[in-house]
Design brief:
The chain has 84 residues and is mainly alpha-helical. The protein has one domain. It contains three helices and no strands. Helix 1 packs across helix 2.
Length: 84
């Protein structure tokens, strides 16, 4: 996830939280509906301003899981080199 998508997600989360508190929204279904509507509004703003929709943003070449596996393997190799 790049900085643009991360920022949009954080904005969606904070705006949903504010609305839930400000409007004293109770119950899981009401919270889910509020969350959906805030997300829909934010997507509309992105589209209106000519931004790239999250699903159209570029993705990294490697997943976080792949990067973590590489890091662990590199650490093991370094440790083995230090032992030799």
């Amino acid at each position: 996830m790049g900085s643009t998508e991360l920022a949009a997600n954080l904005f969606r989360i904070t705006q949903t939280e504010e609305k839930l508190v400000h409007d004293d929204i109770k119950g899981e279904n009401n919270a889910n509906t509020t969350h959906y509507n805030i997300g829909k509004n934010i997507r509309e703003v992105i589209a209106k301003n000519g931004g790239t929709m999250p699903e159209n943003l570029s993705t990294p070449n490697k997943s976080l899981k792949e990067l973590e596996k590489e890091r662990k393997n590199n650490n093991k190799q370094l440790q083995n080199q230090n032992i030799d």
